[in-house]
Amino acid sequence: MTELPLGWTTRRPTLDDVPAILELVHASDIAAVGEPDFTSDEVREELTTPNTDMSRDCWLALDDAGKVVGWAYPGNSTGGTRDFANVYFWPGSGLPALKPLLELLMARMVERAAELGHQTYEVRSGAIPGETELIETLTEAGFVFLKQFARMQMSLDGVSPVAPEPPAGITVRPVRHDDEDELRAFHAVIEEAFVDSDHRAMPFDGWREQISKPGTPFDEWFVAEADGRIVGSLQSTDGGGDSDEGWVKHLAVLRTQRKQGVGEALLRRAFAAYAAKGRPKAGLGVDLANPTDAASLYFKVGMEALYRANIYRTTVEATGA
Q1: What is the DSSP secondary-structure string of 257-276?
Q2: Which residues pair with 121 in a beta bridge?
Q3: Which residue in 189, 268, 176 sits closest to 221, CA to CA?
Q4: What is the pLDDT along the chain (321 residues), one digit of tens a residue?
Q5: SS3 state at 315
Q6: In angstroms, rounded to a whole number, what is the distance separating the alpha carbons of residues 162 and 220?
Q7: Global confidence as pTM
Q8: Are 143 and 131 a contacting pair, CB within 8 Å?
Q9: Distance of alpha carbon 312 from alpha carbon 123, whole angstroms
Q10: Domains of the chain (ranges plus CATH)?
Q11: DSSP state of 164
């Protein structure tokens, strides 16, 4: 185990640490991509997401002055065979926390594999291409490059609050969030559309619990219908208290309806809704290895890649293997 500098310590986080963690993440974001790209709501979500226990799975590193200079936590809300190792460190001064935190987290991944019932467990992690120290540390720990994601964004300046008409035969409307059958259909489209991608399937009940939190912007969720059947779903999440960006969490179109303008119609309806609320920007993340070439649609509607992130992977064997 790599030791921390003299006077530095680690401890488990609590929700009272959210402001300090957010300050750390923003410092990391600014160093890596030039601007903050995380909200306090997202910090809370990461600390409380299913299958993450702050008292067992997460760590903070504090320097000799008691400042939070590192944060490590996993991410496997579905309980499946793949986890995500997230490690943040304060640029420059927090670098000594990087390797110790990663070692703690990877040792915990072995235990998590067993607890979740998996013999071989895939662990992924991410880094912006310019984060040299992080990439070197991941490589030393056995991670190998897998692919890239892009963080897409566009300004909503000048976007009309009235969306253009969808293609003939397609109706785009807000989801009826109080209709359980419709929510099941909405969720089913997401799961079916992403079956050939890296999307981690989530049973309806778990997804339903996630979206039941206060503040879910259902007025920014839309469905596309053809012949009375839902063939496309767009799920938004709120930008949170630190950001008023409209965020597209999922855009899904059934295979039989692709390349017919359904995805673009859903996006433009969401952009119009964001603009009507005064949101300044719209954003989303896209897997650049997605077999549907979703990135082409996002570029077509005027989005740009704010930055790209490398994804790395390794595997661990469950305790007792």
Answers
A1: GTTTTHHHHHHHHHHHHHHH
A2: 316
A3: 176
A4: 899 999 999 999 999 999 999 999 999 999 999 999 888 989 998 999 889 999 999 999 999 999 999 999 999 988 999 999 999 999 999 999 999 999 999 999 999 999 999 999 999 999 999 999 999 999 999 999 999 999 999 999 999 999 999 999 999 999 999 999 999 999 999 999 988 777 777 889 988 988 988 889 999 999 999 999 999 999 998 765 556 899 999 999 999 999 999 999 999 999 999 999 999 999 999 999 887 788 999 999 999 999 999 999 999 999 754
A5: strand
A6: 13
A7: 0.86
A8: no
A9: 8
A10: 9-146+311-317 (3.40.630.30), 158-279 (3.40.630.30)
A11: P
Token pair of 272 as six digits: 């119009």
Residue 204 in tokens: 């309806």
- CA 235 from centroid of its chain's CA atoms: 13
Largest Cα span, the chain: 68
What CA–CA distances, in Å, run from 155 to 77, 225, 278, 309?
A: 31, 28, 11, 21
User: Whole-angstrom distance between the N-terminal and C-terminal Cα of the chain?
Assistant: 21
311: which DSSP letter? E
**Residue corresponding to tokens 């990461």:** 46
Which tokens is 42 given?
A: 């997202």
